[in-house]
Structure prediction request, 905 residues.
Amino acid sequence: MARFEAQCGCRVVQDYYSDNEEMLAKLAAGATGYDLIVPTGNAMESLIRQRALRPLDKGMLPNLKNIDPVYLNTPFDPGNSYSVPYAYTLTLIGYNREKIRELDLPVDSWAVIFEPRYLEKIRGRVTVLDSQRELLAAALKYLGYSANDTDETHWKQARDLIIRAKPYWAAFNASSYIKELTVGNIWLVHGYSNDIFQADLDAQKAGRKFCITSSIPKEGAVLALDSMVLHKSGPRPDLAHHFINFMLEGSNSAELTNLIGSGNPNRDALQYIRPEVAQNPAVFPGHAQQAKLEMLRDLDRHQRRVLSRIWTEIKLR
Amino acid sequence: MHSAVMHSQVMRRGRWLWAAALAVYAFLYVPLAIVVAYSFNDSRLNAEWVGFTLHWYQVLLNDEDMLAAAGNSLLIALVSSLVATVLGTMAGIAMHRYKLKLLTFMVLTPVAMPEILLGVSLLLFFIQVLNLTLGMLSIVLAHITFSIGFVAIIVRARLAGMDESIFEAARDLGASQWETFRYVTFPLILPGVVAGGLMAFTLSIDDFVITFFTAGVGVSTLPLHIYSMIKIAVTPEVNAVSTLLMLLTLTMIVLASRFAPDVLKGKA
Amino acid sequence: MMKSVLPVSLTSILSRLRERKQSNRFANFKLTKWLVSGPPFVFLLLFFVMPSIIMVLASFRYPGEFGGLAPLTAADPATLQGVTLETYRFFFSDPIYSQVFIKSILMAFATTLICLTMAYPLALLIARSPKKSRDLMVLLVILPFASNFLIRVYAWMIVLGPQSVLSLMVNGFLQWLGMGPVHLLFSSFAVLVAMVYVHLPFMVLPLYTNLEKHDPSLLDAAQDLGANAWQRFWRVTFPLSLPGIFSGSALVFIPVLGMFAVPDILGGTGDMLIGNLIKEQFLGTRDWPFGSTLSIMLTIAVLLIAWLAAKLAGSRGSYV
Prediction:
């Protein structure tokens, strides 16, 4: 950020949000004046359909060629008229390697989060994400359905699966579970790949005797592609374009990956990424696993309402 | 007779009553004492006592986001308490003097109802009707709305406790409405007005629920910031800011009680 | 004598002047009334009454495609528009929502009961203390209330945390009994404790206000008639304090009903109260019509409780 500010002679003001829902709610509540937003796939879909975004001027983005075509041309934004991929994360299983090895649990499947016979061994030591879409997606994947399945019967099956497993879980936690993993209170989480990467770094720094690692379940997982988009109401699209181009440079893009372990769609960045990070399959999944990854699509209002009800049932029962 | 009554009263504050009451006092104060104590703890976790340090206060003072939030809170509290005091005083006088049922209802209901209802309805109103971007203005308006009631209650209680004949005497002596107000009424209710203002200030600084819904993006207040810290990453910095905040509101309340000691009881 | 000498015209002028002064005073009175009550009235009309009306109206709308409300009229007939009873149907279609309400009511009830049990001894003590110490004691009750609400909740995160003294003691005791460890934090227990903690002053103050007004000679008389301490309390003090109990209970019950922050911070997975549900609709699912419907339901519940408390408190006479 500092380097960009020095380069362009401008100031960047940042605002954070904890999940896409919060960002969308805030934008719906009329927040304006943002030049650049970094939403995840399905949130971006929503923004595009609302016609809230400014189309990109590809002429100002020569570094766009650095992006791996696998991540371009997504169903939300064919031709990338509005968005430029920036980073991606996976939602997968993170765990305390030593403890789990001790207990001999299969971390290559979502079963370890949903099946009581495994959960018994880690009762009270597991957390799942406090996110309606993510948790439902994991359950749907485990049941063999697509994460974007909108069939209500399938949702009800997923709901029952979750309710059955709930008593063994310590908490629904989307933010502070990293700390718990690092400290050793929690042994297994349903979490984001960059968070788990961070937890391991923290654990090593604190001198813990275990390390945190992650695994992509064989049934598949959710891929969240973060992209940079321009909001229609932003006052400085020129600077925003500069910023995007700046971030598309391999060296700049790699910094993020090296720092937080998020996946990187930028081919030019690969040379700058630290080897141990580049080898990490959770950060850079191989082709076989890529096939099983899905991006979440947006839901319509009726589905959102039904999902909200199912989530209430999950929380309450 | 007098001493007999005193004696029996004293007798009735039995040992068990004292014990129960003290237990409740302890219940009220021990958790807060722990918060303050751990703000000086040389450890990231609020677990065992490691050592004394002012480190967390240093972190607090260098925390730009926190300072910005504190600045916002102060500004919002100043503006909203000023406006609320003026409007609330007027409302209190009107309620006492003219016994307006409708106004009384409108003034007192925001105080009595759950804050979430006020927060949510304001959110709806700001977005749907006013098309207002949520930010400082929306927060200030929201804070004024719920503060008016508190000020009005205090001012009204103060008026109710006063002897009506003073006003009549002033009028008989030929004072106009305005003169009566300026030289008689206002000085007499001034302590109540000040107490109400302090109350409004404190409420604004402390408010969480209503601000949560009407804040929008980009503007954070101290309670909102503390909330996100609690949810995401708890460090003793939260203890430090809590301690400082407690000191501030403690001063306010003590000041307010000096100005209008009977007022706090009349709140109900 | 003088009057009959003055010309009639002068007398009539004088009397008309006097009349005008009276009517001016009357007119002034009316003007001041509007001047004084006007501004707060207008402000509250705009920022309290109108938003409430909007909320009622919003509950009859469809949810917007991307959140918020769907338009009332739209050019394209294919888009969802207009008014509907859909949200109310949705609310009643699944018992889960009524369950959330019941849970909230139970939590409010439990909180009120515990607050009452804890506040009564304290209020009694203060009421019976010499006047000088009373103000100080009341101040001591209010002071914790002066601290930020979040701080008071956060304090319990520390006290009930897994590594706190309390937790270790409780779990050590349970272990000695042969039972497994319990998590004090992130549970309904934690939510209840914090709710009581936050609302205790609201129960103490009305109770104290009431108890202070009791005539001590009544208790003296009861004692003279042979009543022991318990009987004196149960048959004299307690009934007289009922209005205070009812107002205090209302002051606790109603806010607890609408709480969301406490379960949000300290609650476990099952601790979803009405407030949490409403917050989720507005800031999560973006289903504003349904959020409004839930709010209306909450408002109705609150009004019922308030009405009930007023009736119970008022019917007992003058000790409020």
About this structure: The radius of gyration of chain B is 23 Å. Chain B touches chain C through 96 residues (CB under 8 Å). Chain B has two domains: 2-38, 55-266. Residues 2-38 of chain B form one domain.
